[in-house]
Design a protein that fits this description.
This protein is α/β, with parallel strands linked by helices. It has helices spanning about 1-15, 20-50, 65-70, 75-80, 85-100, 110-120, 125-135, 140-155, 155-160, 170-175, 185-190, 265-275, 310-315, 325-350, 360-380, 385-390, 415, 425-445; strands at about 185, 205, 210-220, 240-245, 250-260, 285-290, 300. A five-stranded mixed sheet has the order 5-4-3-6-7, with helices on both faces. Strands 1-2 form a two-stranded antiparallel ribbon. β4 and β5 (about 250-260) form a beta hairpin.
Length: about 450
């Protein structure tokens, strides 16, 4: 093409320099012949390319056959590919058919569409990797991924629900380390609320502890103009996610999309103050377990500060537990450890949360929500899941590369960020924590 432009330019110069009509006619004829020759050569090249064009997706194992191969052969092959076994996968397909508008498309069954989506988020696969493995075009992979992502994120209303505040978790009821202490009688509640003249003779025990709260950082891919807002304390681009979980390792509330620079306490305070956030506020007398990054107040039981807290700190020392505050912090950490184990299962099952590909910020939030929905779904429908068995033992901690702000001080002050509660509420929470601590230490000795 460049050669043709150069020659045409030279011919035009020669035509302008022609002095006689004969020279001009000769030059014009040369220009016309070269133009026709180039057009013929270009058309011939296009014709040859059309004839010799090779089809791309010619693998014998097409997407549907590959799906059937995974479903009908060794179950570990399917688990290694999509991190769930066939009965759980079939139950997921049934739920999607019942609760969403997803159906078989013209060329892809719903089973194949869901398997493509789960494969991408579990194997952190790019669009080109999915094209090669499933033998579909890039546009087909994109449309399928977007459709299934929105449908599974919609299921969060069904599978991520607030806990039952009246039920006593079995993890506390049948554990002597927790059950006698992480509870309070109505009489003690009345006394701690500074109503000494009111006597209620009720022997009913209220189970106080209803779950654990913590924040975690997941990988993000932010535009260059806002990337600095997503850089956490480890200088990596992350997004902050606030999570409430039950002691059965089920997520009961999830908030996704906060910038990585935001502290966990600010995220919690904003959700508490927002009436439209849907935050499951604990009833009077009940509380969530939080770490030292939050303040101890009504509805949120935090450990003692400036006292060894983490399980590894208590197990590493030969002298054992020293004092009531260390005992309280140790058992507080062992009970709150359920949320750390939830993060361990989530990161182990969904590597895309550690290596997010180039999606939009809205799509990244939907992907993270889909991971939480699938986490709860697998927990409910597959109690023998290997990852839950691995992290289900109390004391098992997630990998150390997670970017968590458990012990990081708040840039604006934890007390100031969560100062919406009155002083009486804080006094009530501190008195209740002291009572639990001393009762626990007396029985420990």
């Amino acid at each position: 093409m460049r050669l043709m432009i150069f020659v045409s330019h030279e011919i035009r110069l020669k035509m302008c320099a022609s002095r006689t009509p004969a020279e001009w006619d000769e030059t014009f004829e040369l220009f016309v012949n070269m133009t026709l020759g180039y057009m013929a050569l270009n058309m011939g090249q296009r014709y040859l390319n059309r004839i010799e064009r090779l089809p791309m997706h010619t693998s014998i194992r097409i997407g549907h056959q590959y799906m059937l191969e995974l479903l009908n052969q060794h179950p570990d092959r399917m688990f290694n590919k999509i991190r769930m076994y066939r009965p759980c996968f079939e139950m997921l397909i049934q739920v999607l058919r019942q609760k969403t508008t997803l159906q078989n498309s013209r060329y892809l069954t719903l089973e194949e569409q869901v398997m493509i989506f789960v494969y991408v988020i579990l194997q952190k696969a790019t669009n080109r990797m999915a094209i090669e493995d499933w033998q579909h075009s890039g546009s087909t992979i994109y449309v399928v991924f977007t459709r299934i992502c929105k449908a599974i994120a919609f299921l969060s209303q069904t599978f991520i629900k607030p806990p039952n505040f009246d039920a006593i978790p079995d993890e506390i009821r049948w554990n002597p380390k927790y059950y006698p202490y992480f509870q309070v009688t109505i009489l003690n509640m009345v006394r701690l609320c500074q109503y000494p003249y009111l006597v209620i003779l009720i022997n009913l025990l209220w189970q106080n502890c209803i779950g654990a709260i913590n924040g975690t950082h997941i990988a993000a891919h932010a535009p260059a103009d806002v990337a600095n807002n997503f850089r956490g304390r480890k200088s990596t681009v992350t997004s902050n996610m606030l999570v409430i979980c039950s002691f059965d390792m089920l997520f009961t509330y999830v908030v996704i999309g906060w910038e990585g620079v935001v502290h966990d306490s600010r995220v919690l305070t904003t959700q508490l103050e927002d009436p439209t956030s849907g935050f499951p506020h604990p009833p009077p007398g009940k509380y969530y377990l939080v770490d030292s990054g939050y303040s101890n107040k009504s509805g949120f039981l935090a450990p003692f500060r400036n006292v060894p807290y983490h399980l590894c700190d208590a197990r590493r020392r030969a002298r054992g537990i020293n004092g009531p505050t260390e005992l309280f912090n140790y058992r507080h950490a062992s009970l709150r450890n359920c949320i750390e184990r939830c993060f361990g299962v989530l990161n182990a099952r969904f590597p895309i949360l550690r290596y997010m590909t180039n999606f939009s910020l809205i799509r990244q939030r939907e992907i993270a929500m889909c991971c939480c929905v699938l986490h709860n779904f697998i927990r409910l429908h597959n109690r023998g899941d290997p990852l839950f068995d691995r992290y289900g033992v109390n004391g098992v901690m997630p990998p150390s590369d997670s970017d968590s702000d458990d012990d990081a001080p708040s840039s604006s002050g934890t007390a100031r960020d969560q100062g919406a509660n009155s002083r009486n509420d804080n006094n009530f929470a501190n008195d209740m924590r002291d009572r639990i601590m001393f009762e626990m230490y007396l029985n420990y000795n």
